Amino acid sequence: MSDRQTLPSRRKPGAGRRKPSTGRAAARRERRGGKWRRGWVIAVLAILTAVPLVFHRHVPNSIGNLGSLLDTFLPWVGVVIPILAVAAIVRRSASAGVALLIPTVIWGLMFGNLMVPGKGGGQYDLRVLSHNVDAANKDPKRTASELLGADADVIALEEITAADLKIYKAQFAKTYPHVVARGTVALWSKYPVEESEAIDVGFAWTRALRAEVATPEGKVAVYVAHLASVRVGTSGFTSGQRNDTIKQLGQQIAQEKVAGVIVMGDFNGTANDRSLAPLTAGLRSAQGAAGHGFGFTWPAKFPMARIDHIMVRGVTPTKAWVMTSTGSDHLPVVAEIRI
Question: Which whole-number Å values give the CA distances from 206 to 130, 226, 227, 230, in the listed order?
Fold first, then answer.
């Protein structure tokens, strides 16, 4: 044995020890990476939400009228976006958050202008109102009273029965001395009606009329129409009759000689519905130009679509809005117009 003592070897300070920060940094990197790896299902659903918004025009009407049906309820696709956003937050998924930007931007570009406040405004020359009063309305007197409260210069009503027409005439007599009634549509005006005629849109009974209203600022041609609705059949949703009425009315309006044109009524379709193009071509929606929001009118208890319209040509909408329920299954629409 050696007399030399063996001394313990010296270790450098910290040698052999795991740096405390290394584990925490790795955990942070893991958490950051997890945010991008989580929520891929939500991200895929977000991208799929954008598909009907971008390609809705490519959905054919030949399959159960699905194209027009999608056009009609297209704004409601946006309801999916906040639902997926909540799911992305719960999952803490960065990938889902980024994917949600796609449908959000597309929806905003398509419908954001409708949500902009403060559109239109200023003085107006004519206030007009349109309302499908519902043939099954149990209290037309109440409806008439609600409409009188709007103080419109011209009122257009659709789906009037012969019995209810007498009630509306009696209720409106003091305020609206000029009346035009054709079939199930009618017009009341504070100003003289110089000419009026029924318009044939392919029904066995009259559901559209034209009247020339002489306002203090000039003459305007006013159309009142109740177009056919989409029907449910064995092959799905069918709209052949409705499309025929649209084409016939559109041809009449296209040939109108009076510069100022106002078209009001229940079109049984939204402004987005491609089937309405023969009618809406060259016309401007009062709600889109001077209203705020979508202006849904049907069904009255929980409005999901705007199928009641005021559209114009050669005049300027300055304000548009939707009234509250009058007892009908539709809500009335109102617009102020500068001639």
Answer: 17, 9, 11, 18
